[in-house]
Predict the 3D structure of the following.
Amino acid sequence: MSLTPEQVMATHKANVETLFGLANKAFDGVEKMVELNLSTSRAALTDASTQLQSLLSAKDPQELLTLQASLLQPLAEKIAGYNRQMYEIASATSAEFTKALEAQTADAQKAFTNLIDSTAKNAPAGSETAVAVMKSAVSAATNAFESMQKAVKQATDMAQANISAVAETAADAAKSAAPRKR
């Protein structure tokens, strides 16, 4: 059994739609990152100006040290928040790509399985063994792909948990360091 021109065109059309959909998702992710960087840069510039004015108005070294220490905690929290937001944007964009890839893969597997079943029905007598071997190979490939997807998901979940833990640790360290006086 061969594919009809209509089936080929439908497949190409679906692939082009998926490609443009993914391109739009990628641009959305980049746009969000650019917006985050602009707002973070703007806030950092404002904070730097305010902090510099505070430091310049210090009347003695003790007040200067106290001001410096009090600036560390908000800075660490802002850095942790920025990193968390960047990770969330990247993670959401990646999830969209994964979702589209899984859908395309499921459709391709279904079409291939249908093609094998159709071929098996029209296969000449005595080719049952070859058809069984082909079905077994497809089943093994599907199982391997599913295992790989699970491993990637576990690794992604672990990375997200590690990033959250690092962000919390950095914020806690900044909080505990800020009140210290020299």
